[in-house]
Amino acid sequence: MYFRIAYILLSVGTLVSCSKATQNYNDVQILGHVASGLYNPNQFFPENSLEAVEYVLSFPEVAGVELDLQLSEDGEAWLFHDPTLDEKTTGSGAICEHTSEELSQIHYTTINKEGIARLSEVDFSRAVGSKVVFLDIKLGNCLPDFNVFDRLKTTIDALQTAYTPGVEFIYIANYDSLTTAFLNEGYTTYRDVTSYDGALNMLANYDVDGFYLRHYQLDKDQVEALQLLGKAVALFEIRSPFTIRDALEKHPDYLLVEDVKSAIVEKYN
Amino acid sequence: MRIIGFVLCWFSAFSFSQERKKTSISFVYQLAKVESFPSIQVNGQFWNAAIFDSSVGVGLRTTFLQGRLFPQFSAGLGYNVLHSMSKKLQLSPMVMSRLSGFRLSPQTRLNYIEGMGGYTLSYGERVILVHSAFFGKGGEWNQNNELLASFWTYSVNLGIGYVF
After folding, report:
1. Residue B120 DSSP SS3
2. Residues of B in contact with A16 (CB under 8 A)
3. What is the CATH number of the domain that holds A110?
4. Which residue of A58, A135, A142, A182 sits 20 to 30 Å from the alpha carbon of B116, by its own alpha carbon?
5. A56: left (phi > 0), else alpha (psi -120 to 50), else beta?
6. A243: domain range?
7. What is the pLDDT of residue B15?
8. By the 8 A CB rule, do A2 and B12 touch?
């Protein structure tokens, strides 16, 4: 009886190990959305945390991470996704309502109590191989008493000086004034749009380097059309293996995925 | 080949035991931190009321949706605290360890080791309902034995089995 079950198990194993036709997705770079994913029950570390960034960048198959940058009340760059701290941390209110000293006391409501990360604390030099880092700039609704662009420029210049050429930084600057200023400085600048037409309209006003869209907002031909215009395409909100497969088939420049391990399996299957 | 050897040894260990009092085999669905694992679980009662529990399963998503074999093996020891009170109901605090792993890409293999504590509950005489829950620590290693992550882990299991 036991041996019969063993043989059944072995048969199932053999069946699923049979190789599939190999697809070539070498032109598609995999990045971790908010490092470890927003909607990933198998993640080990909270999004945008130092631990998550270090973990995801340790995979040689991963091209980089996307992180969310918010400014504190005193103008320091912090990594946090949500508009407020209430749901996922011990704090409340927006990042821009707190000073850096206050934010350093706040941690995620996880067993390990990982702290919210300052951008300056991330050691990108520990990344394996050359990497890409998307910084999605979220300014929130606070009215700071400092010049936002000047603060961002100081932060960005320090980052680029420290890690170029090993790390390429790409900025998602979803504010018209910032887009202009970033392009004038020569920073690699992407915009978040919701459709192919939206991307073309954006190009009429700003010669951005690329676009950042949900995976279902562009089809394969539209991805190719933007690439023929010399614009890069980054797709996000990619969760299940089926979605990863579908997104890989479109051959965008970057896939910002919730589960990097699933994406690696799909890319190299 | 190592996997085949392990599975054969695992089943024969139960077949040749002289001390065996009661053995059950169950199909169990494990909702775990690393992934969900449908598994075959063998539970043996030895020496008074000590329980040895062992299972082999495969990761649902990685194996069946992505076509990459993700085997998992586990072994646990416990004690049926209700052995003198009920023949149908079995409640066993248990410690268990798990090994699993899969090939992530041509250059990377990931291995997981987990150690957990929890309980197993089963009800029935011939056909049994099995439930267990565990919580503990785990580690993820790559093929170079570099620890990539240390994490808190859990497993909530539900299944149906048959007692021999």
Report:
1. strand
2. 58, 63-64, 67, 69
3. 3.20.20.190
4. A58
5. alpha
6. 29-267
7. 47
8. yes
Say yes or no for a CB contact (<8 Å) between B66 and A61.
no
Bridge partners of residue B74, in order along the sequence: B55, B98
pLDDT bracket for residue B16 (50, 70, 90): very low
From the list A241, A242, A268, the residue facing B106 with the nearest CB is A268
8 Å CB contact of B34 and A13: no
Cβ–Cβ gap A13/B69 under 8 Å: yes
Domain boundaries, chain B: 20-163
In the DSSP assignment, the letter for residue B118 is: E
Residue B99 pLDDT more than 80? yes
- B33/A16 Cβ within 8 A: no
Q: What is the C-alpha to C-alpha distance for residues A3 and A207, in angstroms, rounded to an integer?
A: 66
pLDDT < 70 regions, chain A = 1-22
**Can you tell me whether residue A64 is helix, strand or coil?**
strand
* Complex ipTM value: 0.84
A154 Cβ partners below 8 Å, 6+ apart?
none
Residues 6+ apart with CB under 8 A from A35: A45, A47, A48, A49, A52, A53, A55, A56, A65, A66, A67
The domain B20-163 is placed in CATH, from the list 3.60.15.10, 2.40.160.20, 1.10.3210.10, 2.40.50.100, at 2.40.160.20
Name which of A214, A64, A207 is nearest A127 in CA terms.
Answer: A64
Residue B42 region by backbone torsions, left for phi larger than 0, else alpha for psi between -120 and 50, else beta: beta
